[in-house]
């Protein structure tokens, strides 16, 4: 988000809303940019399997900024996983170049390379004969860390993924639930603090409730660690919820559109992308816009007692409006004081308004 | 003959055991087996006491002779099984690693021929073209009990969840590390089941070593037959059966103890 956009937004806020929202938004952006991530560049990457004439991945090029969370979305068999797996050379590209922080991946020892790239797969692949602590220690051990450093790191990571080290360090994978195993999978991939993470449908095998919980935790985690992440999914909603940018892929890993979730939702590049978004694009966009980023009404316009915090999305606001049938509902700040109001018209205006969309999309 | 019954039982049991999960340690069978062995040996001993021992029987039915033959028998069994482990496990790894169908086919075919050929025919042929004695018997035993370990090593490696090996590779383990730290430990229960079968095979087949003068309890059985002294024959047969049961029992305990935790 540029300063001028923010100013325009703030000046148009009715009812004496402070410019605090703008400031907070700007801070969020700087936080995301604090990154330990690496820059990844794929150039004209091709993969042809064996004798086949049709490539699995054809002329794939992409530039990923440090700390970005990039979602690869596409139907099964479109080559999205193949593309991702070429970055750590689980699959060797047939031609093209891949660099991580300027270093040519193909010239490095693949095992050495993989120790510095976190890798999480859908089936998790925890080692059943090793305890949780041993699972997480695998890469540190390969890198020759001292026992004490490794042990401290294991405890730290288990806490990060919200598993009590005392309870879980000594357990075996089969003694954990699916969601807990998936957290261990993420912790294990983070063990040596790699700048890059590759995640292949990591939450795909969990039930919807666990998945949503894991997604929220994962977003919060990413906010603090700022890794460069390539995240493969076939679930567009997951891509919208998590991604800084989304690459919508079709056959042979062709990039149909590569943009922020808000931009893709507002202006799908073609019918293919539109079909992938499916119904309810407007609602999906609303879910991306927090109330503090929207143009709201005066606090005194609020009717009834219904209100919601400004950190909620426009979609939450619409939901409450529909539920209560009120013409306008209150918006509260962190202290719980009603500082603004919101109506259906104002929500619609946000969708028709390019500035609003760009503001939400500026997170990238 | 009794030892053949033992062999047959174990062939049928081995594959079924592949899927067995860690069960209770003290099962009925585990408790009952040693009791049955002791009771059978006791009954044999008491029965022999009631017999009139003539001079021919006395030459074999004495502690020194029985212990010597038993020791020979166990030596054959354990050395052959150790050789099988040392040879068949690497062969199984190679056979499951190689992309060459020819190599895999060759290894499996040789192992199959080894087991399909009647041990007695093989051991005597080998003695004719080479020499009689302990070493020849050992080779015959190894050839005969090679297949279970080879096959179980291959099955044990093949049944590992591919996502486990993929994540091991993805974390930067080289192929040797994946094999040593992940695949072999996870294949241990299945490989051990193969070794157990192999051991029991060896106990049974070691009885034919007597035909090429390599000793063992087969001597008692054959002597008993030749000299028409059935107590001798029965003592030999019962001892072989009890040893087979005992080794099977010990191996089942080893399997439980050596199985990696968490699996």
From TrEMBL, chain A:
UniProt EC number: 7.6.2.9
UniProt cross-references to CDD domains, sorted A to Z: ABC_OpuCA_Osmoprotection
PROSITE patterns, A to Z: ABC_TRANSPORTER_1 (PS00211), ABC_TRANSPORTER_2 (PS50893)
GO molecular function: ABC-type quaternary ammonium compound transporting activity; ATP binding; ATP hydrolysis activity
InterPro entries referenced in this protein's UniProt entry, alphabetically: AAA+_ATPase (IPR003593), ABC_transporter-like_ATP-bd (IPR003439), ABC_transporter-like_CS (IPR017871), P-loop_NTPase (IPR027417)
Domain ABC transporter residues, every copy: 40-277
Domain of life where this protein originates: Bacteria
Keywords: ATP-binding, Nucleotide-binding, Transport
Family: Belongs to the ABC transporter superfamily.
Protein name, entry field: ABC-type quaternary amine transporter
Automatic annotation (TrEMBL), chain B:
Mode of membrane association: Multi-pass membrane protein
Protein name: ABC transporter permease
ABC transmembrane type-1 domain mapped to chain residues: 70-251
Source organism of this protein record: Subtercola boreus
Keyword match Cell division: no
Membrane-spanning residues: 31-48, 76-95, 107-126, 132-150, 186-212, 232-251
CDD domains: TM_PBP2 (cd06261)
Subcellular localization: Cell membrane; Membrane
Entries under InterPro entries matching the protein: ABC_transp_perm/SBD, MetI-like, MetI-like_sf
Lineage start: Bacteria, Bacillati, Actinomycetota, Actinomycetes, Micrococcales
Sorted UniProt keywords: Membrane, Transmembrane, Transmembrane helix, Transport
A cellular component annotation (GO) from this entry: plasma membrane
Family designation: Belongs to the binding-protein-dependent transport system permease family.
Biological process annotations from GO: glycine betaine transport; transmembrane transport
């Amino acid at each position: 988000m540029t300063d001028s956009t923010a100013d325009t937004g703030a000046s148009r806020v009715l009812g004496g809303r402070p410019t605090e929202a703008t400031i907070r938004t700007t801070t969020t952006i700087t936080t995301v940019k604090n990154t330990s991530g690496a820059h990844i560049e794929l150039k004209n990457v091709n993969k042809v399997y064996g004798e086949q004439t049709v490539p699995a991945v054809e002329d794939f090029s992409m530039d990923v900024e440090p700390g970005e969370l990039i979602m690869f979305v596409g139907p099964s068999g479109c080559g999205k996983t193949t593309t991702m797996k070429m970055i750590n050379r689980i699959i060797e590209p047939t031609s093209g170049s891949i660099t991580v922080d300027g270093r040519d991946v193909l010239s490095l020892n693949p095992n050495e390379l993989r120790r510095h790239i976190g890798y999480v797969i859908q089936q998790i692949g925890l080692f059943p004969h090793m305890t949780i602590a041993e699972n997480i220690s695998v890469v540190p051990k390969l890198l020759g860390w001292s026992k004490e450093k490794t042990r401290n790191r294991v405890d730290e990571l288990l806490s990060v993924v919200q598993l009590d080290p005392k309870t879980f360090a000594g357990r075996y994978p089969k003694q954990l639930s699916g969601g807990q195993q998936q957290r261990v999978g993420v912790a294990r991939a983070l063990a040596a603090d790699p700048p890059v993470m590759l995640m292949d449908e990591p939450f795909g095998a969990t039930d919807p409730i666990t998945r949503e919980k894991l997604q929220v935790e994962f977003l919060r985690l990413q906010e603090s660690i700022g890794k460069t992440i390539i995240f493969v999914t076939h679930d567009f909603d997951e891509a919208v919820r998590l991604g800084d940018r989304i690459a919508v892929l079709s056959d042979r890993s062709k990039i149909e559109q590569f943009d922020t979730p808000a931009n893709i939702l507002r202006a799908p590049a073609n019918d293919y992308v539109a079909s992938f978004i499916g119904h309810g694009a407007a609602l999906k966009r609303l879910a991306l816009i927090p109330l503090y980023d929207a143009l709201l009404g005066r606090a005194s316009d609020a009717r009834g007692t219904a209100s919601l915090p400004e950190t909620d999305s426009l979609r939450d606001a619409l939901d409450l409006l529909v539920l209560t049938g009120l013409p306008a509902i209150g918006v509260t700040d962190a202290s719980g004081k009603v500082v603004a109001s919101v109506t259906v018209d104002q929500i619609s205006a946000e969708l028709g308004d390019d500035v609003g969309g760009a503001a939400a999309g500026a997170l990238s | 003959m009794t030892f053949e019954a033992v062999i047959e039982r174990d062939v049928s049991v081995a594959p079924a055991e592949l899927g067995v999960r860690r069960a209770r340690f003290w099962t009925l069978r585990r408790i009952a087996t040693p009791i049955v062995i002791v009771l059978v040996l006791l009954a044999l001993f008491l029965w022999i006491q009631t017999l009139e021992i003539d001079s021919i029987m006395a030459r074999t039915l004495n502690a020194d002779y029985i212990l010597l033959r038993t020791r020979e028998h166990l030596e054959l069994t354990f050395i052959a099984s150790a050789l099988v482990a040392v040879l068949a496990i690497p062969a199984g790894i190679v056979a499951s690693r190689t992309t060459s169908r020819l190599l895999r086919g060759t290894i499996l075919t040789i192992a199959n021929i080894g087991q399909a050929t009647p041990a007695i025919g093989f051991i005597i042929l080998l003695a004719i073209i080479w020499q009689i004695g302990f070493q020849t018997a050992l080779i015959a035993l190894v050839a005969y009990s090679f297949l279970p370990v080879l096959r179980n090593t291959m099955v044990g490696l093949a049944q590992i969840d591919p996502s486990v090996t993929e994540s091991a590779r993805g974390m930067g383990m080289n192929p040797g590390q994946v094999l040593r730290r992940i695949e072999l430990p996870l294949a241990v229960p299945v490989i051990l089941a193969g070794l157990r079968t192999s051991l029991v095979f060896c106990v049974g087949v070691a009885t034919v070593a007597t035909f090429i003068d390599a000793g063992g309890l087969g001597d008692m059985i054959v002597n008993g037959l030749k000299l028409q002294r059935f107590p001798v024959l029965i003592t030999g047969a019962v001892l072989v059966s009890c040893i087979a049961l005992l080794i099977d029992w010990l191996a089942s305990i080893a399997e439980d103890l050596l199985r990696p935790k968490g699996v």
